[in-house]
Design goal:
Blueprint: H1 2-14, E1 27-32, E2 37-38, E3 41-45, E4 49-54, E5 63-66, E6 81-85, E7 90-95, E8 103-109, H2 150-153, H3 164-167, H4 171-179, H5 186-209
Parallel strand pairs: 1-4, 3-8
Antiparallel strand pairs: 1-2, 4-6, 5-7, 7-8
């Protein structure tokens, strides 16, 4: 099974087929240590999760002071953590309510979007017959000026009588056609060869008996 999977993977790489991989949301960490948030400024995207890790002996928490969506964590003791997933873009200013000097911020950027390819149909060029004059369209209620086509002005050519001799091929072509030998069916050749071999074998057997 491993060899088959490796062979399929190698074939996809050889054919330059991209392997599908779902885009997973990122997880960032903020340390609560030494009575400070580290990093103090963090940039993430919508859908990312930030986890605050508490390493101080004194309790800490995370409380927003200015944010598109307010949140507040419970007080965390040493060794505890708390996570929050950002669903709305904007700047989140927060601090520790137990130690107001501990301040930091998280900037949330919109999720990346890819613009779909344009599917607008391109107008096809109008095709007109050879010698015809294209007719311009006019709004309703307006009578277009009378125009004459080039075919109407050109006098009709006199009808030519059919020459029965022209339909016949020249004598040289007839002779070349007659001289071309008809192709033989390969199966007939094989059947004739087999029949000749069988007759030869019968003749040899009869000669030995005699």
């Amino acid at each position: 099974m491993r060899r088959a999977a490796l062979a399929v993977t190698g074939l996809l790489v050889f054919l330059n087929v991209p392997l599908a991989s779902p885009a997973a949301a990122a997880t960032q960490q903020v340390m609560m240590q030494g009575y400070a948030f580290s990093p103090a400024a963090l940039t993430v995207r919508v859908g990312d999760t930030v986890t605050w890790m508490q390493y101080d002996e004194a309790p800490h928490d995370v409380v927003t002071t200015s944010a598109p969506v307010a949140f507040r964590s419970p007080q965390l003791s040493a060794g505890q953590s708390w996570s929050y997933t950002f669903r709305q873009a904007g700047t989140y200013q927060y601090y520790c309510s137990v130690h107001p000097d501990m301040r930091a911020s998280v900037t949330v950027l919109p999720a990346p979007t890819t613009a779909p390819p344009s599917t607008a149909a391109r107008p096809l060029p109008s095709r007109t017959a050879a010698g015809a004059v294209p007719v311009a369209t006019t709004p309703a209620g307006n009578t277009p000026p009378a125009t004459t086509s080039a075919a109407a002005v050109t006098p009709a050519a006199p009808a030519t009588q059919a020459n029965p001799a022209a339909a016949e091929p020249p004598p040289a072509v007839q002779q070349a056609t007659a001289a071309t030998p008809a192709t033989l069916d390969p199966m007939l050749l094989v059947a004739g060869l087999v029949t000749g071999i069988a007759v030869l074998c019968l003749l040899l057997l009869s000669s030995r008996r005699a």
